[in-house]
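ok posting inputs for the CRA job
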Amino acid sequence: MFPSVSAPEVSSESGHDVRTGLDAASLSQAVCDYLYYFQGRHPATASRNDFYLATAYAVRDRLFQRGVQSLDALLHRPDGRTVAYLSAEFLMGPQLAANLVNLGIHDAMREALWRMDIRLEDMIEHEVEPGLGNGGLGRLAACYLDSLATLEIPAIGYGIRYEFGIFSQQIRDGWQVELTDKWLHLGYPWELARPERAVAVRFGGYTEPYTDEDGRYRVRWIPGEIVKGVPHDTPILGYRVKTCNLLRLWRAEAVQTFDFSAFNIGDYARAVEEQVTSETISKVLYPNDASPQGKALRLKQQYFFVACAIQDMLRAHLRFGGRPETFHKRWAAQLNDTHPTVAVPELMRLLLDDHGLEWEEAWDVTQKTFGYTNHTLLPEALETWPIDLFGALLPRHLEIVFEINRRLCDGIRRVYPGDEDRVRRMSLIEEQGRRSLRMANLACVGSHAINGVAALHTELLKSQVLSDWVAMFPERFCNVTNGVTPRRFVVVANPGLSGLLDRTTGDDWPVHLDALRRLEPHAEDAEFRRRWREVKRENKRQLAAVIRDRTGIAVDPDSLFDIQVKRIHEYKRQHLNVLHILTLYRRLKQNPDLDVVPRTFVFGGKAAPGYHVAKLIIKLITATGDLVNDDPDVRGRLKVVFFPNFSVKNGEMIYPAADLSEQISTAGQEASGTGNMKFSLNGALTIGTLDGANIEIRDEVGADNFFLFGLTADEVRSAKAGGYHPRGVYEQNEELRAVVDLIASGALAGGDAALFRSLVDGLLWHDPFMVLADYQSYVDCQTRVAALWRDPDAWSRMSILNVARMGKFSSDRSIRDYCERVWHVGPLGVPTEGAP
Ligand code: CRA
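and the output
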């Protein structure tokens, strides 16, 4: 049954290096060895999961081999700087295919498995991804780890190993239903637990002053609770390089897992109580995208992983001979939004209380260590913590925060005497209502660099949310536009396109994305355009099969695939998309012979479980599908699909199959967006507003190759300031009125006029995201899209130019920008100009 590999052999006898060899024979032997000796399975009886695990372990060996070498290289550069990317979320996506591509052994592994009658595709399909993030912010962190390793910059991603990641989404009766995400249930082979590297994290209790041997006034923290943080390491290999970095995620455990005294007196429940409460910390990811919940457990999570990370960094620094006061020369730490900001008082605490530094020196080290990236302007997303809650959990940190604030406010008063309003605005403490700690202000004061994630976003940050900070610390601000990794989102996700790009431009584009410019002349080549369309058509055929399988809806691969996948949020305006669909539907009902471009509308994305309007929008989408899909007058020309459980893995199927990418947020609301980049890089044309990175994408691909509509951020502001009356827009636009009335009538809800009432009323009376204001512009723009679609050559030309001009949006470019503008580090951590 397994002719070529019957039993494991010792590597020296077989002539293959089973641990590290990259040829098919070595790989096949390695997989077989894992089956026998690690899982205790014979290939003949092994399950698909057994084979998957064995394959993953064989790959992991090769990663860790490079990881050890990378660490060794770092040890020989004790003057180098390592990047610590602190993030509450890492949305890594499936690991097998990406690692095979980065190692350059995709074909060898296919051959190795084939010798055992196993299809590599089945192994890749079998993998369950760790959903340890909500959306863009977490996926960005993962792209950045990929680029850091590819650019050979020593880096560690620090985060939380949530036992349950983002919920998995099912659609029942058209509604979202959330199921727990048990990503660990069949074993996660990519990580290595390092219990010997565990650290202790303290919570609660009180502080007390004392005088040390030198007669100095000091403070000690007597905690009320201690929890253990156990690191779990996932190797992060760069693309075709030796550098292998680390993602180190922390799991919370009880210090003492079993209370024998409680057990002895017969209280079984109490005996494991400590374990239960400790482990709660890393149990579950909060499923909110860009809007915090303000729960005590969330603050505990934040402090937990940050305390683990900083201790880990400091320990490494001291072990390699560093002194506390040179910490910033070894580490550049990035705060991925405000979630890890408690790192600022934590580092201060360690330097002051544990290492005896003076305040000024500790503060200097701290500021030089941290950089802060802001990811959103949404006012509800600005994190604050009630002072009483913060103080109860972190009493010593609160004292340090008060002292940072005292010095900050003194500084403001020196620069702006008498401007108490400014002091109030910049203070770390919000005094109105329940006194609370403003994390964005703490991040700003504690960092030497502050950046937004796209040009417009940074401008708005500077002119609105953080304008006081710009006035006082202008040199701290810079922009770093987001990027995405072309390895995962093209090489892995779109092998058809990848092959065509290799053959046309050479194969260096995955690491020099600007090289895709070489495609430009081919846009004029009719034969090339035909091949371009063939690739897209095959991707669409595959997606159509999956859609059929998961939703039962049959869609035509020759129709225009018009796709919006991202978190469901009012500002992203999935409902604007629905208004357009219903507009087309009504036109067809009025004139079934109308010549419309056949379209397949695909939606995907999760709604935060507590966000009722977002959940109602999902229902609106599925109800629209129910209305439209089988209507005889429509004759299959419009199909509406809600693709359940959007994830990195599903995204890898969806982006390559898109013709049109919907990036239709209200201008000024989407900080950057990164889905916009993934689509365009896969040859979709964008219909979008002047928002986030859309603006820069349009600048790069050319205004002629981008479907622009809608109000600008400035226009949105003045429209609102001038008193926006959505009801008036509705009354004056006949087609819009008819469509809104259709939703309000209950026709999409089996006659239940109440179902979408709140949504409709919200649009008519408030419409904070200007859906009605942008409706006509959007529908007109969609008419231009349809006209272009009728000219396949013109469409393909634009599609090719989009891909050719996306070089800027490689996450490699973003990481180079961070290295230059924020971290001052080069490959192998060599300090560059401006390094502290
Ligand atoms: N929700 C922004 O909204 C941006 C990503 C990554 C977001 C996106 O426009 O592309 O960050 N903001 O920068 C966020 O999470 C806390 O704020 C996002 O993913």
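notes: The CA atoms of residues 213 and 356 lie 12 Å apart. Residues 11-69 form one domain.
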